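Changelog excerpt

This revision adds worked examples to the README so contributors can see how folded entries look when concatenated. The first example is reproduced verbatim below.
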Amino acid sequence: MRNWIAIVLLLLVGTAGAENDTPATLIHIGPEDFTTQTLGMKTVEGHAYLIVQAEARNGQIANTLGYCRIRAWYDMRDRVTRKVLLLDHDDAILTTIRFSAFSLTNGKPRAGQMEVTDHSTGQTTVFQLDGSLNPLNPLTLI
């Protein structure tokens, strides 16, 4: 379970503060900075989803990231992550990330498209992902 958290963090965050700070002040945030839990199963449009959540261990981590929880929907049939939510302390949705257009690369499913919606601005951006640069979909490592 902890493996997917590291990949989600690399996919969504990288190293916090990288665009604003000098290299000497970069803050590394990794899987050890989160607690994880399984929230249960939910069926949507005939697909069974395992819902998992990672929560920042403290306020400093949450403030650095700009969110305190990551909640992901893992499609049990297709074995891919379909949706990831970034949430604040009150469980308000800050960002929604949807993965689609899956294909197999070296026998592993990879998303061909990622749609990111910023709920504070209402702006949605769609990214076409190149299979050579596309990281593994986070929960395919479970």
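The second example, added in the same revision:
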Amino acid sequence: MKIKEAKLSNREHIVKVTNRVMKATLSLQLMMAEIDDVEDADLTPVEQLKQQQKLIDDVMNYITDTLKLNQKEQEKLDDLEFGETVEIANDVILRVQGLSDDDIAKLTKEAEQAADKSKAKQA
């Protein structure tokens, strides 16, 4: 499959969805879900920092390994805001799992609407 991430480069990255790529995808999703579950837990500040550092490392490693980024692309990834990095990781995850551009656009729109409703309830 071809994946193009404009924030990193103009080239299309060829990703073969091997068992290794699927395992890495599922591992990252599991780790992100576990962190969401633990956010409310009583962690010490040091544990929270270690957890955040591991998340950043794992997300960046997933993108780098899956897209086989070159040095210049890795440097661009290093300079992105973390939110942008997570967006790229989520896009790669969805594509690896077989979703089309239309499917991803629909999911993104639904997520934005849900976030807007949540913000409105909090206000």
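Reviewer comment on example two: Helices lie at 19-38, 45-67, 71-78, 82-96, 101-122. The chain has a mean pLDDT of 89.
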